[in-house]
Amino acid sequence: MYLCELIICIMKKILVLVLLFCQSMLIYGQRETLPIDPEQPARRNTAINAGFMMGGGSLVGVDAEFLVSKTVGLQAGIGISSFGVGLDWHFKPIINSSFISLQYLHQGFGENFYGSYIGPMYVFRAKKILQAGLGWGIVVGTGKDRNGNDVTFKVGEWTLLYHIGVFFPL
User: Which of 26, 45, 73, 83 is the most exposed place for a label (fewest CB within 10 A)?
Assistant: First the structure.
């Protein structure tokens, strides 16, 4: 019983940290940067993503991404029953370019924990709005399904990671 309470407490703290991180990225992304050349638009370095299997692998989730350098970004998200974080390497020095990401996905909270995964993912971003990702992850934790039975996969197995949705550069 004590272990469950400890896990729930830790999960709550992680959830608060993810939400604070997302909020700080949103606030920082709202700052105005003046372009060096008036002919060139300001460089956008923040994006909000929403869609199916986003926000840590939830049916509906939202991610926020912030470029910390020209091609490296940090990503954090939350879904209906999940959260996730990622480290992204963009192919071009802009937020709306395709990238490779190392992601951690955590599905379920507390007694409803389903599974957690870590692995690489290729994310394709069209010039505007559409994005889709495909990758594989190793299972690092398992829980119970909706009926209370152990899930069918085991720690150490590989599984497919994917998502599809929209993104909005800020």
Answer: 26
Torsion of CA 32, 34, 38, 42, to 10 degrees: -60
Model confidence pLDDT, tens digit, residues 5-53: 767 777 677 777 666 666 666 666 555 555 555 555 567 899 999 999 9
Alpha helices in 30-124 (DSSP H): none
Q: Please report how many Cα atoms fall inside a 13 Å half-sphere around the Cα of residue 160, on the Cβ side.
A: 5
- The Cα 144–Cα 115 span in angstroms is 8
What's the half-sphere exposure (Cβ side, CA atoms, 13 Å) at 42?
A: 11
Nearest to 61 by CA among 164, 142, 138: 164
112, amino acid identity: N
129 pLDDT above the threshold of 80? yes
Residue 24 has φ and ψ, to the nearest 5°, of -65, -35
Stated pTM of the model: 0.73
φ/ψ bin of 156: left (φ > 0), alpha (ψ from -120 to 50), beta (otherwise): left
